[in-house]
Every structure is written in structure tokens, then in C-alpha cells.
Structure prediction request, 124 residues.
Amino acid sequence: MLKRDTDWRQGDLLTQQTAAELTALNGAVGEAHRVVVITHDCDLPHEGETSVEVIVADVVRVSSPQLSYAKNPRKLDLSYEIAGGQSVVVELRHAERRIVPKGEFEKHAARDNLHRCPLMGNVR
Prediction:
């Protein structure tokens, strides 16, 4: 069970290897995709929650202003910083949500520490 002191946060990216191992994703992840944790921080360690929600996001070339800051109810573009000032932009689509059993998430999940969402960069 994820504990209260878990380092997992909403918006964290999973490694490509983790994404390939999670059965809930059924091999839906390739080089043009990233998997983003969307479960709220407070729900991750909560004993009453039995799963972790993720979204299989497409990697896109640039962020669309129409898809930022929750302007669109079904799509959201997020930019993640990479060391060296580069970034990767992912487009989250509501229809690509997946439910991962918490036990499986705990067993396989590994955070991609090479990417950091700039909006959350100062939280940790």
C-alpha cells in the first residue's frame, strides 16, 4: 500500500519500462506516448482508494494555447522540462484514462525523474 510519505504526485510521468509492464495499459504505450499519473496526491496513499488513475498521453511538437490551463474540458497540453533547458510536451485526452490497481502500481511503477512539470517544479 502506498503510504502517506509517498513521493508520487499528480502529474508525475512513469518510465517507458513501467508503462510497458502495467497490464491496464495493454501495450498502448510507444515512443510517441507518455503515461501521466492523474490521481490526486491525497488519494494516492488513501486506504479507501484501490486504484491509481493514469492517462496515456501523446507526445506533441508544441503546446497549443487552446489546450492549456484547462481551457478545453477534454484535452490538456502539459510541458515537462528536461535537463539542459529542453522540454517535452504531452497532450492528455480524457478518453485515454486508465485504471491501474494499486498493488500492481506499487509493484511496477517507477517515476521518470528526467522530466519535471514546470508548474510543479518548486513543490518538491
Q: What stands out?
A: The first helix runs from residue 16 to 21. The longest strand covers residues 51-60. Strands lie at 33-37, 51-60, 75-82, 86-93, 97-101, 115-116.
